[in-house]
Amino acid sequence: MPFDRRIKIAPSILSADFANFGAECRAVEAQGADWVHVDVMDGHFVPNITFGPATCSAIRPHIKGVMDVHLMIAPVDPYIEAFAQAGADIISAHLEAGPHIHRTLQAIRATGKKAGLALNPGTGTDAVAHLLDMVDLICVMTVNPGFGGQKFIHSQIEKVRQLRAMIGDRPVHIEIDGGITTETAPLMARAGADVLVAGSAVFKGGSVSAPEAYGANIRAIRLAAESALSGTLA
Ligand code: DX5
Ligand code: ZN
């Protein structure tokens, strides 16, 4: 998984057909997705339940590229090995999920997987200062985690700007998760994000039997983000 800061679109399968995950993953990749974002929720850390490592393992063979697993669970540590075994490329844990995020990030890296640090909208950037050399990705939640289709929280733009400055030359991705559309993607690209997770905005209007809408949605989000960047550079 070579590092680069180009814009990457990561459809969240939270908005896919849960009875058809394999075909949905193949469809979004065929339609131009860079990564596939997999939301794991436990009904405890967040008020919703999705699925666990067995489902991740089942969908893994249907994803050619990067499988980006976002754990919204507490505790995290007892399950890291299972998600690594399930074939995740990146495993993100929430800073708020327990008192020992430093240990959790060490445990993720010890499996040989990339370590992601996810931040709720209410969490400040100071909490990240001593973790920067332990992470491959910081996921800034731009909604409160738990559900797709929520409204983008604008205060997170400044957080991304701060994180981008703190990261400097380190090979750390900034991922944005929640409420990404063609309107909000440019704001985040300009602030310094390179991975844009989008659930409802990618899956709207399409299906596995009519996947062209996924492609049009992915291209529209990418174009909006990239145009904002070329505007900045001009
Ligand atoms: C929210 C999840 C997101 C969600 C994004 O808790 O982590 O990945 O699926 O969905 P949209 O893009 O619809 O806000
Ligand atoms: Zn997510």
- Main sheet record: 8 strands, parallel
Beta-strand percentage? 15-25%
Percent of residues in helices comes to 25-40%
Named CATH topology: TIM Barrel
Number of domains: 1
**What low-confidence regions span 5 or more consecutive residues with pLDDT below 50?**
none
Any ligands, ions or cofactors bound here, and which?
D-xylitol-5-phosphate, zinc ion
Question: Would you list the SSEs in sequence order as H and E?
Answer: EHEHEHEHEEHEHEHH
As an assembly, this protein is single chain
Q: How would you write the strand order of the largest sheet? A: 1-8-7-6-5-4-3-2
Q: Tell me which CATH architecture applies here.
A: Alpha-Beta Barrel
Q: What is the average per-residue confidence, as pLDDT, rounded to a whole number? A: 97
Q: Can you count the helices?
A: 8
What is the 3D form? globular
CATH superfamily label: Aldolase class I
Q: Please, could you describe this protein's structure?
A:
The protein is an alpha/beta fold and 234 residues long. It has a single domain (8-229), classed as Aldolase class I (TIM Barrel, Alpha-Beta Barrel), CATH 3.20.20.70. 33% of the residues lie in helices and 18% in strands. It is built from 8 helices and 8 strands; from the N terminus they run E-H-E-H-E-H-E-H-E-E-H-E-H-E-H-H. The protein has helices spanning 21-30, 53-59, 80-85, 101-110, 156-167, 185-191, 200-203, 212-233; strands at 8-11, 35-41, 66-72, 90-94, 114-119, 137-141, 173-177, 195-198. An 8-stranded parallel beta sheet has the order 1-8-7-6-5-4-3-2. Helix 3 links the parallel strand 3 and strand 4 (90-94). The chain starts with 7 loop residues before the first strand and ends with a helix. The model has no long low-confidence stretch (mean pLDDT 97). Bound molecules: D-xylitol-5-phosphate and zinc ion (ZN). Residues 12, 14-15, 37, 39, 70, 143, 145-146, 148-150, 177-180, 197-201 line the site of D-xylitol-5-phosphate.
